[in-house]
Specification:
Blueprint: E1 6-16, H1 21-29, E2 39-44, E3 50-58, H2 61-71, H3 77-82, H4 84-87, E4 93-99, H5 100-104, E5 113-120, H6 127-145
Antiparallel strand pairs: 1-3, 1-5, 2-3, 4-5
Length: 146
């Protein structure tokens, strides 16, 4: 895969007061290249409890390939590809939620806790073109990883 049809990939999760921030950070790192910077913003919940938002924006092609390679490890990546009509919006953004608990263990599974949003390149910027580009990228990275 010489070029990647994504402008960027955003990963984001919340670390609640009941969670260990280092463990949640490790869960995010499961999808990121080594030494990638993770942004940290501390907030307060409705009842004053601490909530830390951890996020990372991946913009370089090699780093995007790394994230896509990790996504290709999904046991149900075929299902994700079949659901692209529902996962790509009118603004050419691809959405997927990942299992934060599994990610801490280094595993890649769909689930709750970690949100992935990727801006798909499409010229012209049409949803159908974005779906096709996302499908091709996932197929390319999957076949390269095999």
């Amino acid at each position: 895969m010489s070029s990647v049809p994504f402008h960027y990939i955003d990963l984001r999760t919340f670390c609640y007061a009941t969670e260990d921030e280092k463990r949640v950070t490790e869960a995010v790192r499961t999808f990121l290249p080594e030494e990638f910077e993770i942004d940290r913003v501390e907030n307060a919940g409705h009842h004053g409890d601490r909530i830390v938002v951890l996020s990372a924006r991946v913009e370089r092609a090699d780093d995007i390939r790394h994230v896509l390679t990790r996504l290709s490890e999904l046991p149900d990546v075929e299902t994700v590809m079949d659901e692209l009509d529902d996962r790509v919006d009118d603004n050419c953004a691809f959405f997927l939620t990942l299992d934060k608990q599994a990610a801490f263990k280094g595993e890649v599974r769909r689930g709750a806790g970690l949100t992935l949003r990727a801006k798909v390149e499409a010229y012209p910027a049409k949803r159908e073109a974005a779906i096709e580009n996302a499908r091709n990228a996932l197929e390319d990275v999957r076949s390269t990883a095999e």
